[in-house]
Design brief:
single chain; mainly alpha; 3 domains; 25 helices; 4 strands; transmembrane helix
């Protein structure tokens, strides 16, 4: 075959979804072209599996655009193509009764635009394509959320579009700074600019907020949580794809991991990852809706990813071991997570405790096992600050176990069945297909195999940290720890499900009752002091402290804190403090 043809084929995953979107938009709502929606992801999947490593330069497009397929981008393209294939099948099934209405046409066009954007993120070889593809995918996702009938989903979309404006401005500013320094927008040149830059604090701040919004980290999570709670299964898969491609992969594409040393910035990123994971676990323990469990698990995934990136930029010597299998890890855990969502949702709808529930438990276990290499590295004394990987790894296993037995609140039953009315045998088959793919990726990674060659003839990769034998003591300790966390999460979900829904009187010990009374009296005293001596603009803050200490139990106090963290004033305060901290670091550098 002509070698130039291999390069030109890279355009097919981008052009086919956009061409279908144009045809559906022009042809009208009654056209049969809408039935081609599930075929939009097929070219990308074929290219990801069969095409050898290659690149394509387009000097006349977007100031010199470039595409590439390499060992880093191939797993992401397989991931996005697989999830989009399942999502479009579910969307087609869900909107089949509306196939002759404008609503279905709008959903199809927006889904195809978001699909083209995520494929562009996977194949981008320069900063302009990375920025344009991320912007296209983000605003198309906002449109999809606005097409839903759930008020919570539309509110999540409005929050997302506000944060997207901030995120895209910061990412664009970052690309301008880097491109001005090296005179090129290629990703390799941008990595050289980051490596040689003397303004590490400014660049890190732009990276942190720009990609943190799309990853749903703590402080920018207020769009992700309600979106998962109210979205259908198809849109949930699209959300997973967007977070993985736009929020997590950007760090791997821009940072020259292994050849850069940002010790302080690495500590900040590790701290943010641990805070995000703590919030995700707290939310999962306090909430009962399956959408909360899904959003908590995706936040835990982001936390584990950012913790590994933080350790890599803090200690360049350990970066190759930490980041060698990050693309395979992302492919493994997202496929398993998507299969878990589909199979658990199907089992809940059918009220089935048989093979579907067994397969759901196996998928949750596969999600937990994705954290094994990171926990094993965290136990290695050669990795500096390796202990920071313990909590994210165990948190992923804990939330995966809890998601199996996550109960459904009685008041959410009717709403959930309404939003999931498109369930069918196709959903079960799609979940089983994703489960098989996740199991294949996990087995290949355990054998040290990476998708770097044509087709199924994948080559062995040396020095993979998955290649440790099961008899390795650190691996055994990591397995036992993950199993303990998984069982603990499973047991906590089961106990919560068996609790009666009617309120019961709490039994208070004498010490706890005395402490609670003292806190309430202190709260009343603070409230009186605020009203008597402080100006009105501080009353709200003191009143919030009073409400916090006046709660009757630690569970309600934690729920109050969690509710405050999802309000706009708290989010803006966090962003302002983060901006002031970045400015102070930049001025003191």
């Amino acid at each position: 075959m002509n070698p130039q043809l291999w390069h030109d084929v890279l355009l097919l995953p981008l052009l086919w979804p956009l061409l279908l979107a144009l045809l559906i938009a022009v042809a009208g709502s009654g056209s049969r072209i809408q039935r081609w929606l599930p075929t939009a992801a097929v070219p990308a999947l074929i290219v990801a599996v069969t095409l050898p490593p290659t690149s394509l330069d387009l000097p006349t497009v977007l100031l010199g655009a470039g595409l590439r397929l390499d060992p880093t981008s191939r797993p992401l393209l397989i991931l996005t193509a697989s999830l989009w294939l399942v999502s479009t099948v579910l969307l087609q099934r869900r909107h089949q009764p509306l196939s002759h209405h404008d609503h279905h046409r709008r959903v199809a066009v927006l889904a195809l635009l978001a699909m083209g954007g995520t494929f562009g993120l996977a194949l981008a070889n320069d900063g302009i394509v990375l920025f344009a593809a991320g912007t296209l995918a983000g605003y198309a996702l906002y449109g999809l959320l606005q097409q839903g009938t759930d008020r919570c989903a539309r509110a999540a979309g409005r929050r997302l579009v506000i944060l997207l404006v901030l995120s895209d401005l910061l990412v664009f500013e970052l690309l301008l700074i880097l491109a001005h320094a090296v005179g090129s927008t290629a990703l390799a040149a941008l990595q050289d600019a980051i490596r040689a830059s003397a303004s590490a604090n400014v660049l890190f701040g732009l990276l942190l907020v720009g990609f943190g919004v799309k990853a749903g980290v703590l402080g920018a999570h207020l769009w992700l949580v309600p979106a998962f709670r109210s979205a259908s299964d198809a849109v949930q898969l699209i959300l997973i794809t967007y977070v993985a491609a736009a929020g997590l992969f950007g760090w791997l594409a821009l940072l020259p991991l292994g050849s850069m040393h940002w010790p302080n910035q690495g500590l900040v990123l590790i701290g943010l990852a641990l805070a995000t994971l703590s919030y995700a676990v707290l939310r999962a323990m306090l909430r009962t809706d399956p959408g909360d469990a899904a959003s908590s698990l995706i936040m835990a995934l982001s936390a584990l990813w950012l913790c590994a990136i933080g350790l890599a930029i803090h200690d360049p010597q350990s970066a190759p071991r930490l980041t060698a299998d990050l693309p395979l890890f992302l492919l493994h855990i997202t496929l398993a997570f998507a299969a878990l969502l589909l199979l658990r949702s199907r089992a809940e709808q059918r009220q089935c405790k048989g093979w579907r529930m067994t397969l759901t438990a196996l998928m949750a276990l596969l999600v937990a096992l994705a954290a094994l290499p990171f926990l094993r590295l965290g136990l290695d004394v050669e990795i500096k600050l390796g202990w920071a990987l313990w909590w994210p790894s165990l948190g992923v296993a804990l939330l995966a176990g809890r998601s199996v037995m996550q109960p459904r609140a009685a008041q959410d039953q009717e709403r959930s069945l309404t939003r999931r009315s498109g369930h069918s045998r196709q959903q079960t088959l799609a979940g089983i297909g994703l489960a098989a793919g996740a199991a294949a990726v996990a087995g290949a990674a355990a054998l040290g195999i990476a998708p770097n060659a044509v087709g199924l003839a994948w080559r062995l990769v040396p020095a993979s940290h998955w290649s440790h034998t099961v008899l390795d003591p650190l691996t055994l300790v990591a397995l036992i720890s993950l199993a303990t966390a998984f069982i603990g999460g499973w047991a906590s979900g089961g106990r919560r499900a068996r609790r009666p829904t009617r309120p019961q009187a709490r039994s208070w010990s004498r010490t706890e009752g005395t402490a609670a009374t003292g806190l309430r009296l202190l709260g009343h005293r603070l409230d009186h002091l605020a009203r008597a001596t402080l100006p009105a603009w501080r009353d709200a803050a003191w009143h919030g402290v009073h409400r916090l200490v006046a709660q009757r139990s630690w569970r309600t106090r934690l729920a109050f804190i969690e509710a405050r963290l999802t309000q706009w004033d708290a989010i803006l305060t966090i962003l302002v403090l983060l901006g002031l901290g970045i400015a102070w670091l930049a001025l003191s550098h």
